[in-house]
Amino acid sequence: MLILLAVLSNPLHAKETLHIAVASNFKPVLQTLVKNPALKNLNIKISAASSGVLHSQIMHGAPYDIFLSADAARPQALIKDGFAIKSSLTTYAIGLLALWQPSTGAINNKLAIANPRFSPYGQSSAHYAKNYINPPYEFVYANNITHAFQFVETGNAAKGLVALSTLKAAYKKNNDKKYLNYELVPINQYPEITQQGVIISASRHLAAAEQFMAFITQPSTAKLLQTEGYKTKEAHVSK
Q1: Which UniProt keywords are present, listed alphabetically (predicted)?
Q2: Which strands make up the sheet holding 66-68, listed edge to edge?
Q3: Number of Cβ atoms within 10 Å of the Cβ of 182
């Protein structure tokens, strides 16, 4: 009996659970990353929402170990307020916008964007739309950038400013050419979407969290992110 208890309590025989709060745009990529053999010793739980919602949850004590935001402001604010570890701050990706219009025969003038109040993608989308998209159009505000994609896919909006990564994930899954009917928005025409991550100060799994943060910034991971619709250093983005 004592031998059995010793085996069950041995950390070499148990996966450590890591709870990651991730901005909705990055969830599909994260779901791919966690399958990497380099993370086989971790049991990763994912909670996805807009960066604003996740930031608020962390401020109210949500038991996350890592926060992967779609911006730089919120992780840095968590550090300032004592909720995140300063030395863990990492830029893991730069988000890219695409103007998606699946059909040229759409009958409404609605333009879906993520709500600028909660979403960094929404802030950049609003800036681009107001400066570079000719009216008439009517904004349809989504809860997050993934929700904006859903508005367009269901026909509730004729077109939308969405994450390039979401379109790539949808095309990979469904092989439908409608997901290729987009224009990549020039990155110099909207505020850069710098996506940063931090380890939460209250985490009880610091070693595991540090392992993950090292993994997400290594060159092989960066190369994958480029193919999935994100910009990293020296990235080339194409359809």
Answers
A1: Metal-binding, Signal
A2: 42-49, 16-23, 66-68, 193-199, 90-95
A3: 23
Residue 63 has pLDDT above 90, yes or no: yes
Report the b/e string of 196-227 with b at 16+ CB within 10 A. Answer: bbbbbbebebeebbbbbbebbbeeebbeebbe
Separation of alpha carbons 164 and 159, rounded Å: 14
Residue position matching structure tokens 């208890």: 5
Is 78 or 108 the better-scoring residue by pLDDT?
78
Task: List beta partners, residue 199.
Answer: 66
CA-based torsion, 18, 214, 86, 89: positive or negative: negative
pLDDT number for residue 106:
67
For the chain, domains (ranges, CATH) are: 2-95+193-227 (3.40.190.10), 97-189 (3.40.190.10)
